[in-house]
Design a protein that fits this description.
The protein has about 200 residues and is an all-beta fold. It has strands at about 5-10, 15, 20, 25-30, 35, 40, 45-50, 50-55, 55-60, 65, 70-75, 80, 85, 90-95, 100, 105, 110-115, 115-120, 120-125, 125-130, 135, 145-150, 150-155, 160-165, 185-190, 195. The strands form 5 sheets. It has a 7-stranded mixed beta sheet, with no helix packed on it. A 6-stranded parallel beta sheet has the order 1-6-11-16-21-24, with no helix packed on it.
Length: about 200
């Protein structure tokens, strides 16, 4: 057990090619637990190519737990997830705190997810938001989210797998304002096996 995160970037760039970041147990006793496997801070970029982020555990004893797979916070950050898997990660927040974005949690920047799977990630807290992915803004800057040919599946809770938070932010996702579209053939699969394409009020 260690303090989060496993990998921290500040003003940096990292490319992970056919890597595995898995089975880390991370615990924060005093503040929010942010970033289990990867934490991206000011003006950072990450490429995950053919990479797996699996079965990491992030626990906050006295705060919120955010972004077990990837946590990114800055308006100029860039995250590319290509041919990769983010699965089986768990965000646990004790007491009356929140678990947010067990797979990916992003505040600002650009996120591109291509040919990838985000599955079986778990938010475990009294408040649960975006079990696969949580996306919000950073200081009124535009956040860009593109998802193509990917699967979001089996994340818990299943009725809140992809959460786009409109608070204090403008979105540029190649759709009309306040509408979220998963670009075909992307699927968000629910427990009954159905695949849906979502609008903002659905997520």
């Amino acid at each position: 057990t260690q303090e989060p995160p496993v990998i921290y970037l500040y003003l940096g760039f990292a490319r992970f090619e056919e890597c595995e970041i898995k089975e880390n147990t991370l615990f924060s006793s005093n503040f929010d637990a942010q970033g289990g496997a990867i934490f991206m801070n000011d003006n950072s970029g990450v490429v995950l190519s053919g990479t797996k982020i699996l079965d990491n555990q992030l626990t906050a004893d006295n705060g919120n737990a955010k972004g077990v797979g990837v946590y990114s916070t800055w308006s100029e950050n860039n995250l590319l997830v290509l041919n990769s898997v983010i699965a089986g990660n768990t965000a646990t927040a004790e007491g009356f705190n929140n678990s947010i974005g067990a797979g990916i949690c992003v505040y600002g920047g650009s996120i591109n997810i291509i040919n990838s799977t985000i599955s079986n990630n778990v938010n475990d807290a009294s408040g649960q938001t975006g079990s696969a992915m949580y996306v919000s803004g950073y200081s009124n800057e535009t956040t860009k989210l593109n998802i193509f040919n990917s699967i979001i599946y089996g994340n818990t809770p299943v009725d809140n797998q992809l959460y786009i938070d409109p608070y204090d932010n403008n979105y540029d996702i190649d759709t009309p304002p306040w509408e979220v579209t998963l670009v075909s053939p992307t699927q968000l699969v629910t427990t009954d096996g159905t695949a849906t394409y979502l609008e903002a009020e659905d997520v």
